[in-house]
Automatic annotation (TrEMBL):
Compartment(s) where it occurs, according to its Swiss-Prot or TrEMBL record: Cell surface
Record keywords: Competence, Membrane, Transmembrane, Transmembrane helix
InterPro entries cross-referenced by the UniProt entry: N_methyl_site (IPR012902), Pilin-like (IPR045584)
UniProt superkingdom: Bacteria
Pfam families according to UniProt: N_methyl (PF07963)
Name this protein carries in UniProt: Prepilin-type N-terminal cleavage/methylation domain-containing protein
Transmembrane segments: 12-33
Source organism per UniProt: Saccharibacillus kuerlensis
Chief place of localization: other
C-alpha cells in the first residue's frame, strides 16, 4: 500500500526550468526565420528588378537600330554618367529624357521617332514601371567602350545596359540597391 500512496511528479521549479529552455530555443528559431524572411524578400526584389531590366533590353532591341545609333552618337543624347578619370561620359535614355516632349521639335525630342510611331507612352511604361505598388526607374545606357570595329561586326551591334533602381529610396525594401543587365541591339539586317 505504501507504494500506491507515494505519487511522483514534476515540481514547479522543474516545469519553470523546462519552459525557460523551450522559450530560449523558440527565440533562436524566431531569429532564424526572421532572417530567412528578410533574405527571401531581398531575393524577390532583385528578381523583380532583373526582370524589369531584361524587359527594358527586349523593348530596346525592337527599336530602330539606325535611329538609336544616331541618338547615342548625337550631342542631344542624355548624359547618364559623367566622365571620371579615364572613363568618358556615358549617354543613354532615362525616364526624364523624353518626358517634356510634346512634338518632334529639336534636341532630344527630334529622336522620339526612334520609337514606333513616335509614341512615347510605351517607352515611359518601360522606363517607369510599377510592380506590387512599388515604382521603379530604368536607365538605358550606351556602352560605347564595348563597341567593336566594323570589321569585327561592331556596325551591327549596339552594346547597351539597363539599370533598375527603386524610384524612391528604400521603397523596394532590403537588398534592392540596383540591378544592371547588359545586352545588344542588333541591326535590322541580322534580326
Amino acid at each position: 500500500m505504501k507504494s500506491l500512496k507515494k505519487e511522483q511528479g514534476f515540481t514547479l521549479i522543474e516545469i519553470l526550468a523546462a519552459l525557460l529552455i523551450l522559450s530560449i530555443t523558440a527565440l533562436a528559431f524566431t531569429a532564424y526565420f526572421s532572417n530567412a524572411l528578410t533574405f527571401a524578400k531581398a531575393n524577390q526584389n532583385k528578381t523583380i528588378m532583373s526582370n524589369l531590366a531584361r524587359n527594358a533590353l527586349v523593348y530596346m532591341q525592337k527599336q530602330d537600330f539606325d535611329r538609336l545609333e544616331a541618338y547615342f552618337n548625337s550631342d542631344s543624347a542624355t548624359v547618364v554618367r559623367n566622365a571620371s578619370g579615364t572613363r568618358e561620359q556615358r549617354v543613354g535614355i532615362t525616364p526624364e529624357t523624353f518626358a517634356s516632349c510634346t512634338t518632334s521639335s529639336g534636341g532630344t525630342c527630334a529622336f522620339r521617332d526612334m520609337f514606333e510611331n513616335g509614341n512615347l507612352q510605351p517607352v515611359m511604361a518601360v522606363l517607369r514601371p510599377e510592380v506590387n505598388g512599388i515604382g521603379y526607374r530604368v536607365v538605358i545606357e550606351y556602352q560605347k567602350d564595348l563597341s567593336r570595329t566594323a570589321a569585327a561586326g561592331g556596325a551591327l551591334l549596339l552594346p547597351i545596359s539597363a539599370t533598375v533602381t527603386a524610384a524612391a529610396e528604400g521603397a523596394a525594401g532590403p537588398g534592392a540597391d540596383a540591378v544592371t543587365v547588359e545586352g545588344y541591339v542588333n541591326a535590322q539586317s541580322i534580326r
